[in-house]
């Protein structure tokens, strides 16, 4: 449960204390999240090699598709107009874009770069 909490709160995969993102981003102002280069607490470098986060795009795609399917299923209870449903799905995808960006990178880091120090604590 601790790793789940660290992913959601965007903590370092090694020490679990430092923040991964300096800025959260805002889709309404067209600002993307800004990631720290390394952890301010333990010094762990987040992008361990060039192109490390390319795989996170696939994670982001899967998360976005799941959200779109959920919005479609929920929208069917309220309307049968396909245009309204498509607008709701597009708005949801747009508003959750920065959240999906951060979540996909956090999931990618925790899948492939979570070398937690067992002696830390």
Show the helix and strand layout.
Layout: H1 2-8, E1 21-23, E2 34-35, H2 56-76, H3 82-95, H4 97-112
Antiparallel strand pairs: 1-2
Helix pairs in contact: 2-3, 2-4
Question: If you had to describe this structure to a student in words, what would you say it looks like?
Answer:
By secondary structure, this protein is mainly α. It has one domain. Helices cover 48% and strands 4% of the residues. The chain contains 4 helices and 2 strands. The chain has a two-stranded antiparallel ribbon with strand order 1-2. Helix 2 (56-76) packs antiparallel against helix 3 (82-95) and helix 2 (56-76) packs across helix 4. The radius of gyration is 17 Å and the shape is elongated.
Summarize the structure in short.
By secondary structure, the protein is mainly alpha-helical. It has helices at residues 2-8, 56-76, 82-95, 97-112; strands spanning 21-23, 34-35. The two termini are 16 Å apart.
| SSE sequence, one letter per element | HEEHHH
Share of helix among residues? 40-55%
Radius of gyration: 17 Å
Order of strands, main sheet, comes to 1-2
Q: Whole-number average pLDDT? A: 88
Tell me the overall shape.
elongated
| Portion in beta strands | under 5%
The first-to-last residue Cα distance is: 16 Å
Structural class designation: mainly alpha
Number of strands: 2
| Helix count from the secondary structure assignment | 4
Oligomer: single chain
């Amino acid at each position: 449960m601790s790793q789940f909490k660290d992913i959601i709160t965007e903590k370092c995969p090694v020490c679990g204390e430092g923040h991964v993102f300096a800025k959260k981003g805002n889709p309404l102002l067209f600002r993307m999240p800004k990631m720290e280069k390394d952890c301010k607490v333990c010094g762990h470098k987040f992008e361990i090699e060039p192109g490390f986060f390319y795989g996170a795009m696939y994670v982001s795609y899967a998360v976005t598709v799941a959200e779109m399917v959920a919005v479609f299923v929920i929208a069917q209870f309220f309307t049968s107009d396909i245009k309204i449903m498509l607008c709701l799905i597009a708005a949801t995808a747009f508003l959750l874009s920065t959240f999906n960006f951060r979540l996909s990178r956090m999931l990618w880091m925790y899948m492939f770069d979570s070398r937690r120090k067992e002696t830390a604590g």
